[in-house]
Amino acid sequence: MARTRLYRNGDLVAEDFPIDDISEHLAAEGTVVWLDLQSPTPQQYDQVQEEFGLHQLAIEDASSPRERPKLGHYRGHLFLSAYQASFDSGPGELTVCPVSAFITPRALVTVHGDGFDVDSVVRRWDATAELAPHGVAYLVHGLLDVVVDGHFDAVQELDDALEALEDKLFEETPQAVREVQQRSFRLRRGLSHLRKIVLPMREVVNGLTRAKLVDEEIAPYYQDLYDHVLRVTEWTESLRDFVATILESNLAVQGNRMNNIMKKVTSWAAIIAVPTAVTGYYGQNLPFPGFEHRSGFVTSAALIVVLSVTLYLTFKRKDWL
Fold first, then answer.
1. 2-254 is classed in which CATH architecture?
2. What is the domain partition of the chain in residue ranges?
């Protein structure tokens, strides 16, 4: 599937025209073309490479599903690689979708898979149509603005999920304990993945800001985009420390619970040891006060009850039971 747009002097004049017409449109002055390819075939890659004179290494990077976010400089064009991210707080999973872009002085070619929401990019362009006279810089800004906003939303969802998880730390039910352990590791894995795609975006946006296609009038918009990237990066780093704190707190809470359990077990063992000691003592095959008399049984029973109750009250007052 392919989508196209044609801008002339900052006005949108055509959409969804054939790829073969791109050369004819670019021959006219003041035109800018956007071409979007969803899961392109090798034949489409060859057609685009011949149409725009793209470097073979850039084509290979665009077809690779594991490329890191970066900005590559080639003769006649730039190559941009980024990832759109979304976080599902239910299962606690982070979903990412790669998107690549070939940037020429008068054309933007985007390449992505099925999961990328290209409609949100188109809506962003339509909402900022006043920037269209800036040509390709306007298109690239709209694309990255959507990507960075997705990173921001994902970090926000992760933050909310971690705060909800923190509230469950002191719940003593077995289900809550298991949930804290499982979700903390899932959120940590998702945060680590998000961090890998967020941190390199500083270099990407900074490199585009210094590129020739960004003029002085649209440069403040790229600076604002760079500030958003920095904020997402700093937020990600703070959440990384937050996850570590939750894991450490969880271990500390588990240790305290174990200590309380051991105190209770020890206290009950001490209480049980009293009647065992008394009955064992009176079970000696030797004469003792009350030997073979009812008073001896009454004395031993009274000792068991009094000493056991005394230990129980003492341990209860010390919060050992």
1. 2-Layer Sandwich (3.30)
2. 2-254, 260-317
Q: How far apart are CA 95 and CA 80, in angstroms?
A: 20
3-class secondary-structure state, position 64: coil
Look at residue 151 in the predicted model and tell me its pLDDT: 93
269-317 pLDDT, tens per residue?
A: 877 787 777 667 666 555 656 666 677 777 777 877 888 888 788 777 7
* Radius of gyration of the chain, Cα coordinates, nearest whole angstrom: 35
| φ, ψ dihedrals at 211, nearest 5° | -75, 160
Top mean-pLDDT range of 88-97, 247-256, 285-294? 88-97
C-alpha to C-alpha distance for 49 and 117, rounded to whole angstroms:
24
- Of 65, 67, 45, 66, the closest CA to residue 56 belongs to 45
Strands 2-8 and 93-104: unpaired
d(CA 138, CA 304): 88
**How many Å apart are CA 200 and CA 194, to the nearest integer?**
11
CB 232 within 8 A of CB 155: yes
> What is the β-pairing status of strands 107-112 and 11-15?
unpaired
Which helix (H) or strand (E) is 135 found in, with range? none
The answer to whether 187 and 122 are in contact (CB under 8 A) is no
Ramachandran region of residue 76, left (φ > 0), alpha (ψ -120 to 50) or beta?
left
Q: List residues bridging with 111 in a β-sheet.
A: 37, 100
- 168 touches 74 (CB < 8 A): no
Spatial neighbors of 196 by CB under 8 A, at least 6 apart, are 68
pTM over cut 0.85? no
